[in-house]
Amino acid sequence: MLLLNHSEFNLECGTDEAGRGCLAGPVTAAAVILPKNFKNTILNDSKKLSENKRDKLRPIVEENALTFGVSHIFQDDIDRINILNASILAMHKSIEQLSKTPEFIIVDGNRFKPFQNIPYETIIKGDGKYLSIAAASILAKTYRDDYMNKIHEEFPMYNWKKNKGYPTVEHREAIKKYGVTKYHRKSFKLLPDQLKLDL
Q1: Does some domain include residue 196?
Q2: Global confidence as pTM
Q3: Does 176 fall in a domain?
Q4: pLDDT over 80 at 198, yes or no
Q5: Where along the chain is a divalent metal cation bound (predicted)?
């Protein structure tokens, strides 16, 4: 069972990102503050759940959360400031969208930068420990997947509908064959042998 709160504060926000290891598309983060009485037995780290379960959980999270925010940081910014900074920026921007100011922030992973003067803690595998981080992981993943499905229509040969921009064999083969798109992260190692890629 995932725990509801890490701190003693009522307004504790969980935040997480999706798409950090992708070759294309944005890194997407979400921030969620859940009410004190929130319970859900299915909610877990989005990576441990099927797409079907994630899609069912998203409206449950959105309807029950006291407040939530979702933010994309796109490939040009990722290339400019690097993926770690882009991930943290996405989290900050999603927290900025909250209609209530959190009193405490719990972050999935081990890297974060202070947001305003709000105390925070980074928690390794936090999305498998705390409901608010798990809820944020569901929103980040489903919103990002929606975006990747949309740009798939523009460039179907990369099959982003299936791989969501992750470095699958199929995705790398398509880069080899068709080159890169405006959605690819140019600062990433897009092919194992970068020399073959003519940008």
Answers
A1: no
A2: 0.94
A3: no
A4: no
A5: 16-17, 108
Across the beta sheet with 12-18, what order do the strands follow? 67-73, 27-33, 12-18, 104-108, 120-123
Beta-bridge partners for 28: 18, 72
- Which structural domain, as residue segments, surrounds residue 59? 12-152
CB environment 73-112: b (16+ within 10 A), e (fewer)? bbbebbeeeebeebbbbbbbbbbeebeeebebbbbbbeeb
Residue 43 lies in a domain: yes
Binding residue ranges for a divalent metal cation? 16-17, 108
Is residue 166 included in any domain, yes or no?
no
DSSP reduced 3-state for 57: helix
Known binding-site positions: 16-17, 108
Q: Is pLDDT of 180 > 90?
A: yes
Residue whose token pair is 């890297």 = 111
Provide the CATH number for the domain around residue 146: 3.30.420.10
Average confidence score pLDDT of the chain: 95
Position 192 confidence tier, pLDDT thresholds 50, 70, 90 = confident
Provide the number of structural domains found in the chain: 1
CA–CA separation, 121 and 49 (whole Å):
25
Closest by alpha carbon to 17, among 112, 121, 155, 156?
112
- DSSP H or E run through 86: helix 83-96
CB 94 within 8 A of CB 70: yes
What is the rounded CA–CA span in Å between residue 169 and residue 171?
A: 6
